[in-house]
Amino acid sequence: MTLISLRHSLRACYLDFAVYALLIFGLGSSLAPPQTPREAAGLLVLALVGLALWSLIEYLTHRFVLHGIQPFQGWHSEHHAHPREHLGLPTWLSLALFTALVYLPLRAMLGAASAGPLMIGVLAGYLIYSMAHHASHHWPARGMWMERRKRWHALHHQAGQARCYGVSTTFWDRALGSHLRQRGLSERSRSP
User: How far is CA 43 from CA 9, 53, 120, 123, 145, in A?
Assistant: First the structure.
């Protein structure tokens, strides 16, 4: 008997998207309404910083946890072996991890007023990542951004390749040297 099942139905995947979208909406509606344009801009900046923070979390988790630390590496290898299956953390566990590892530390360091909008950005980034990752394996690419994400992620899934860890952005792969150029492939001919 396993405590955590990584295999999910398609319905569970869509429910995960819905839960995170509702959570983002709920967090947004719980924020104190800004009284001035400057306060509104401050909330927007915090949410954008949270989005950028998510992109770094996504990259670091994928590269160093899912491809480097057991048992996560073993679990993630299941995804590489069966990329068309619906594999991932259950929603309850991902929510618990976000709360314990992201929200509570942000709140302790910055206070609730800043942690809320930052967390909205982090969760929005996670939702974008989740949908882009799902789409890259299960949906036809529609639009240039998704086409690029799908090609980039396909390069990551090539057998024996340790590169292209970003799903929602290529920024950290390029900034930290885990993109194609480092492996000697032509950036212009292959880069999404």
Answer: 36, 15, 10, 15, 26
Predicted TM-score (pTM) above 0.70: yes
pLDDT in tens, 97-146: 999 999 999 999 999 999 999 999 999 999 999 999 999 888 888 899 88
- Smallest Cα–Cα separation from 134: which of 12, 11, 8, 13? 13
C-alpha to C-alpha distance for 122 and 105, rounded to whole angstroms: 13
Q: For the chain, first and last CA: distance in Å?
A: 42
Average predicted confidence (pLDDT) for the chain? 88
Q: What is the dihedral of CA 114, 119, 125, 126, to 10 degrees?
A: 170
Where exactly are the structural domains of the chain?
10-139
